[in-house]
């Protein structure tokens, strides 16, 4: 490949790249519709000229036919009057007009065909322009939507990299740290307890101790009263037997009570 060929290819590629970058779809569509409207104007002018030419030719053709018919009638009139020479001249004029009409007939037919073709082309071009306008509106709406989406994506990308998002993230971390600190302080306060909690525990414990001491005193007084009874008041054999059974039952009850107390201790210890 020669040097000039390579230079030419580089120049063409750069020009094509500049043209591609300079192309605006909306402007290109608008310009295309403008060009099509200009073509429509020219086509309408051509159709109008063709119709005018076809009308002129048809008028000339009809005039020649009318002239031929007129001289035909005059020839018949002259012949009916016995003037053959005048009738011959009239027939010669008729022939000239008929020949002119015959010569104009193909031209009239051809012009009529051209007018019909131009009218069809005009209708087709008008339809294409209407379709192009509709497509332009649709493509314009799609292009606006695409640009809006592109701008939105760029803004979202910029927002994700902006300082505002970093500030939100820092504030979120700070709030999370404050929540953790407050939770830890609450747990420590629950474990150590304040002075109010300690006094409340002492007061509740004092009530339990007082009730326990009263129960012990009641049990001790019952035992001393039983030991202080005189011999006359000691129970008889049958009473002793009954009391023995009662004692056994009381012992069983005491065993069950001891078992329940032991279970209670285990629950309290657990």
Automatic annotation (TrEMBL):
PANTHER family, alphabetized: MEMBRANE-ASSOCIATED PROTEIN VIPP1, CHLOROPLASTIC, PHAGE SHOCK PROTEIN A
Ranges annotated as biased composition (Polar residues): 219-229
Residue spans crossing the bilayer: none
Source taxonomy: Bacteria, Bacillati, Cyanobacteriota, Cyanophyceae, Oscillatoriophycideae
UniProt keyword annotations, A-Z: Coiled coil
Compositional bias of kind Low complexity: 230-247
Residue ranges that the Swiss-Prot or TrEMBL entry lists as coiled coil: 26-81, 108-181
Recorded family membership: Belongs to the PspA/Vipp/IM30 family.
UniProt-recorded name of the protein: PspA/IM30 family protein
Segments for region (Disordered): 189-270
Entry annotated with the keyword Coiled coil: yes
Organism, scientific name: Euhalothece natronophila Z-M001
